[in-house]
């Protein structure tokens, strides 16, 4: 409760409010992001829509054409490991909580897309 609200409720001037009441720490503000307004289901749908947009608008056959043939297997293993690492973060991870499930789903969709491009 703010000091002004407290003063109004007890009907006293600022000089009559006990000093310990005036020294209360400020409330931390909740960080609001674009994802805060979405439900988990909406965020997951948005991530899946991202995947559909990738599949529709990004040419798979040319996307990773600059990767040498000898590096493809190592790159695939790296992508698979990153995919596993994101999946292992779990539902209580900062990525999941901050993005309301968008982050892990979008990462999984993107890594799967990259894997498909390399096969």
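^ Assign residues to that structure.
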């Amino acid at each position: 409760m703010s000091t002004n609200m407290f003063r109004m409720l007890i009907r006293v001037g600022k000089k009559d409010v006990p000093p310990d009441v005036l020294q209360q720490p400020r409330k931390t503000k909740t960080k609001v992001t674009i994802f805060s307004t979405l439900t988990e289901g909406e965020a997951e749908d948005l991530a899946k829509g991202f995947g559909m947009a990738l599949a529709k608008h990004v040419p798979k056959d040319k996307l990773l054409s600059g990767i040498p043939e000898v590096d493809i297997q190592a790159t695939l293993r790296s992508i698979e490991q990153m995919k596993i690492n994101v999946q292992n973060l779990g539902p209580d991870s900062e990525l999941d909580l901050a993005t309301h499930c968008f982050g892990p789903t979008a990462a999984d969709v993107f890594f799967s897309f990259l894997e498909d491009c390399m096969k």
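The chain has a mean pLDDT of 82.
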